[in-house]
Input
Amino acid sequence: MAGGVEQVERLLVAQLQRSWIPAAVYVEEYLKIISFTLKKYDRVVDVESVDDTIFNCIQEFKEPSRSKAMWVFSLIDDYNNDRNSERMRLPIQCCNRVMEIRQKSPNVRPLYHCVNCKNGVLGRSEDLWIDKHNYPQTNR
Output
């Protein structure tokens, strides 16, 4: 089932559609995560490179990169195992604590909220991620 980047892209779009996750607009971002991760561990960018070993390697990443990579690679794993995927909530930190997520309905942009300093950051409704330039600064 190899086929390079094009095959991985088709697979990601198919899995998002099958799982009713309206995040196909972010496939390019997901492909960058896959390409970066596989190249970091000297693997060819194709579907066959996604195995248990790559999931173990991803554990070395820091959050939220680890959760993003795990979720994107799990889309491929879910496709290969004929399972539906779920959107995931990123463990975004502020004040050295994980921010809570508040969402009144599924179609509203989620709000990541810090219970300590009361800061909030809007997420993307499609995949619950937030754009990198909007990440809160963790106090140390």
Q: What stands out?
A: The chain has a mean pLDDT of 84. DSSP finds four helices and five strands in the chain. The two ends are 46 Å apart (CA to CA). The CA atoms of residues 5 and 75 lie 15 Å apart.
